[in-house]
């Protein structure tokens, strides 16, 4: 089988030839990170659309789990289509924006309810994230009629390229109420841009809010397992027959490990093979959890492992 | 300068100033994602040749009436997290500022008292520099916080315990005669 749970350390083996068929054969489905795996910027990774098509024909499920909190799943569905991936629907896509909204819905609205009396959410993020929170039935601070005394019950930190000191101060004001949750969409410290530069990630903004408020954020995204819970609830995935494919050791691969999935590192994104090997050589127990079971140069390398 | 476009992908196209050799993070009520982005660019370009310096790690600046606003420490943390490196912090509890004072003035630590309201900056610096330390309770620290450190088994926390405390520095007046 391809289960990745258990006590032994992963060994970062290149997946190819017979090994590829042995690993992919028993798999019922694959979870893919998006940025750096399926595409880089506006360009699909060569062969990636064909891989998804071949998975579909092999009867294997493909689901998507992304820490990127910029886009709504509806926007992501359009992006998949625009970049040449066919048949990917919004319901297959689990972004940290969607899952943060689901998390807040659970915590603020309980099992249901219409939102009145649940309080509002102060969102540090763009319109994609704000839309997901609204779609979950929650009300945003600063929008629409606000009932007198209606409290802000959560501060949600996401990717916010309009982040300012004033917003930081405002968030802190809400967080003085110990009943107000502090939630972050993901822990990513930075994201790569297509020319090799980097843009600061949600993790850096969350660090500012945590420092200012003295609180620790609940982080929805990988490597924490909440997004996997969302996937299991909707699709009933069996971890022992599911592979996690990602490009970032500290989020994707650790997420796989935490969820009991076998992991495949693809080298078209953030992490370098040398980093995985360094973790493997490290004495620290935590470092071992960042070592993938397998790696490939690109997910196109998985195609030969599928039946024609 | 105006941002060259609406998104980070545009901002990172603007040329960097060739002579920049340090990023200094202090209190900035106009802090923004765009500035954070720019700081990250300089730090990545320069690597170890570009210093990352923070003025202080205080997380909160108290205002009148118990209110407060975020302080430099929050912004330093944002830059450190994005750049995945640690800043050199000039301010207390680092002894750098005491060294500046001692360079300008003949200070004998054994005959000098450090007076402050914050344990992890003022008192810690004073204790580290061999000064006598005096906590005043008119600021951020309550006495039970001190007791907590005192009663803990942890030597690092004992460094946060002042030699003395007063309710206010006005309480020092009677000791100074008429």
Automatic annotation (TrEMBL), chain A:
Its cofactor is Mg(2+). It catalyses: pyridoxal 5'-phosphate + H2O = pyridoxal + phosphate; pyridoxine 5'-phosphate + H2O = pyridoxine + phosphate; O-phospho-L-seryl-[protein] + H2O = L-seryl-[protein] + phosphate; pyridoxamine + phosphate = pyridoxamine 5'-phosphate + H2O. One of its GO terms (cellular component) is lamellipodium membrane. It is found in: Cell projection, Lamellipodium membrane; Cell projection, Ruffle membrane; Cytoplasm, Cytoskeleton; Cytoplasm, Cytosol. Substrate binds at residues 66-68, 191, 222. InterPro entries: HAD-like_sf (IPR036412), HAD-SF_hydro_IIA (IPR006357), HAD_sf (IPR023214), PGP_euk (IPR006349). The active site is at 33 (nucleophile), 35 (proton donor). Its EC number is 3.1.3.16, 3.1.3.74. GO terms for molecular function: metal ion binding; protein serine/threonine phosphatase activity; pyridoxal phosphatase activity. It comes from the Eukaryota. Mg(2+) binds at residues 33, 35, 247. Divalent metal ions. Mg(2+) is the most effective. Keywords: Cell membrane, Cell projection, Cytoplasm, Cytoskeleton, Hydrolase, Magnesium, Membrane, Metal-binding, Pyridoxal phosphate. It is a peripheral membrane protein. Functions as a pyridoxal phosphate (PLP) phosphatase, which also catalyzes the dephosphorylation of pyridoxine 5'-phosphate (PNP) and pyridoxamine 5'-phosphate (PMP), with order of substrate preference PLP > PNP > PMP and therefore plays a role in vitamin B6 metabolism. Also functions as a protein serine phosphatase that specifically dephosphorylates 'Ser-3' in proteins of the actin-depolymerizing factor (ADF)/cofilin family like CFL1 and DSTN. Thereby, regulates cofilin-dependent actin cytoskeleton reorganization, being required for normal progress through mitosis and normal cytokinesis. Belongs to the HAD-like hydrolase superfamily. Homodimer. PANTHER family: 4-NITROPHENYLPHOSPHATASE-RELATED (PTHR19288), CHRONOPHIN (PTHR19288:SF94). NCBIfam families: HAD-SF-IIA, PGP_euk. This is Chronophin. It comes from Molothrus ater. The gene is Pdxp.
UniProtKB/TrEMBL annotation, chain B:
It is a peripheral membrane protein. The keyword Metal-binding does not apply. One of its GO terms (cellular component) is plasma membrane. InterPro entries: HAD-like_sf, HAD_sf. Gene3D superfamilies: HAD superfamily/HAD-like. Keywords: Cell membrane, Cytoplasm, Membrane. One of its GO terms (molecular function) is sn-glycerol 3-phosphatase activity. Its main location: membrane. It is found in: Cell membrane; Cytoplasm, Cytosol. This is PGP phosphatase. It comes from Molothrus ater. The lineage of its organism: Eukaryota, Metazoa, Chordata, Craniata, Vertebrata.
